[in-house]
Amino acid sequence: EVQLVQSGAEVKKPGESLNISCEGVGQSFSKYWIGWVRQTPGKGLEWMGIIYFGGSATIYSPSFEGQVTISADKSINTAYLQWSSLKASDTAMYYCVRPMTRPGIYSAYSDWGQGTLVTVSS
Amino acid sequence: EIVLTQSPGTLSLSPGESATLSCWASQTVGSSFLAWYQQKPGQAPRLLIFGAFSRATGTPDRFSGSGSGTDFTLTISRLEPEDFAVYYCQQYRDSPRTFGQGTKVELK
């Protein structure tokens, strides 16, 4: 059984950069589409995008394209979500997700990380 | 994008009662691309139902999903104390994947 272990909470200032991570423990992410989901009190759950661990393809939600970068390091079974210049509106809980079937591009998400709380405030 | 609308926003019920939660899609989702998740305070969402009606591993049989096309339902028969939570539907047919805004099942 896989466990998705995310990096810890972050407090940042507007304009700063940030990289949060999600490591798959217990099972490889190989040939899975691994995704990121944002949760805020105002907008609820929002799908941000996915990355394919069998290659290098990424698919972004139009709402997040150009705002974040999703990347992966297959050698350490880890996905990343990166910002180059944070805004206050990026304050949210971020979850990484793994689909229940492989590759899982058309699959529900059976595995979720514990969440990384990102707070952006001056 | 496919917009999912959940109803009601809040359901106030007592243990032992049944809950009926609705999810409407702005475009057809087909019959295989709709999931339901449960989220409790301080926890990540947990997959309950996939493919509109199939229970995920560990989902008790008091949870059942139904529907196809644009209208979907999650039914919880005989509410247990641990079922009071927020429930979200999600479609995974089209990109971007989208979630409903959630239905809170609260203790009456």
Give an account of the 3D structure.
The complex is a heterodimer of chains A (122) and B (108). Chain A is mostly beta strands and 122 residues long. Helices cover 0% and strands 52% of the residues of chain A. Chain A has no helices and 11 strands. Chain A has strands at 3-6, 10-12, 18-25, 33-40, 44-52, 58-60, 69-73, 78-83, 92-99, 109-112, 116-120. In chain A, the strands form 2 sheets. In chain A, strands 2, 4, 5, 6, 9, 10 and 11 form a 7-stranded mixed sheet that branches. In chain A, strands 1-3-8-7 form a 4-stranded antiparallel sheet, with no helix packed on it. The N and C termini of chain A lie far apart (40 Å). The model of chain A has no long low-confidence stretch (mean pLDDT 96). In chain B, the strands form 2 sheets. In chain B, strands 2, 4, 5, 6, 9, 10 and 11 form a 7-stranded mixed sheet that branches. Chain B has a 4-stranded antiparallel sheet with strand order 1-3-8-7, with no helix packed on it. The mean pLDDT of chain B is 97.
- How many individual β-strands of chain A? 11
Main sheet of chain B?
Answer: 7 strands, mixed
What gyration radius of chain B follows from the Cα positions, in whole Å?
A: 13 Å
**Beta-strand residue fraction of chain B:** over 45%
State the end-to-end distance of chain A. 40 Å
Total helical segments of chain B: 0
Strand pairing plus helix content of chain B: what structural class?
A: mainly beta
Largest interface comes to: A-B, 21 and 24 residues
The strand count of chain B comes to 11
The unreliable regions of chain B are none
Q: Could you say which overall geometry of chain B the principal axes of the C-alpha atoms support?
A: globular
User: Please, what is the average pLDDT of chain B?
Assistant: 97
Q: Please tell me the overall pLDDT of chain A.
A: 96
What is the H/E order of chain B? Answer: EEEEEEEEEEE
Main sheet makeup of chain A: 7 strands, mixed
* Helical content band of chain B: under 10%
Label the structural class of chain A: mainly beta
Low-confidence stretches of chain A: none
Order of helices and strands of chain A: EEEEEEEEEEE
Identify the quaternary structure here: heterodimer
Number of alpha- plus pi-helical segments of chain A: 0
